[in-house]
Design a protein that fits this description.
Blueprint lengths: L11 H8 L17 H13 L5 E7 L5 E7 L14 E5 L9 H12 L3 E6 L20 H12 L5 E5 L2
Parallel strand pairs: 3-4, 3-5
Antiparallel strand pairs: 1-2, 2-4
Helix pairs in contact: 2-3
């Protein structure tokens, strides 16, 4: 097997981050019990069903009347959940996804197990959000992510650690 293909702009922070990601440079060898992409996809779907927890949705309106959804995992929106200086991990779903996806739920479980606040940004028109503006979800445009981070800061959180899903 060959290592995965990586597409990024050489130089800057990408080089520094990749220097510490040795596993990503190794060939992928699937486990015996999940030998191909079909089995791995089915297992990923089933794993999402086993993540226990729930979200509380906070709607965020943008300047152009768009609607974003911040789904707070397991009560992380409450001040009593943790100290105000505990990191908030912001997860961003992939195309046409949302907080309901298994990989996103398990990322929230992992963050919560470390005592962090987990929140998922659901983009315009995704995961049940109404499309209330002329502009829809566009992964290249980061303005909505900026608005979400500002909204999280307004809730009193001092540190936001962004992680991006696929």
């Amino acid at each position: 097997m060959t290592p995965p293909m990586l597409y990024y702009r050489p130089g800057g922070i990408a080089e520094k981050v990749l220097a510490h990601c040795t596993a990503i440079k190794q060939p992928f060898n699937p486990t015996v019990w999940a030998p191909n992409a079909h089995v791995q996809s089915a297992m990923g779907m089933l794993r999402g069903l086993s993540a226990n927890g729930n979200y509380k949705r906070q709607l965020v309106l943008t300047n152009d009347h768009g609607t974003l959804g911040l789904d707070w995992w397991g009560g992380a929106d409450k001040p009593s959940y943790a100290a105000h200086d505990v990191p908030v991990v912001l997860f961003i779903h992939g195309i046409n996804g949302g907080s309901h996806e298994g990989y996103v739920k398990w990322a929230c479980v992992a963050a919560a197990s470390r005592g962090w606040r987990a929140v998922v940004l659901n983009m315009r028109g995704c995961n049940g959000l109404p499309l209330t503006s002329a502009r829809g979800y566009n992964a290249i445009n980061t303005a909505d992510v900026h608005i979400a981070v500002q909204s999280i800061h307004r809730c009193g959180s001092l540190m936001v650690l962004p992680f991006i899903g696929s």
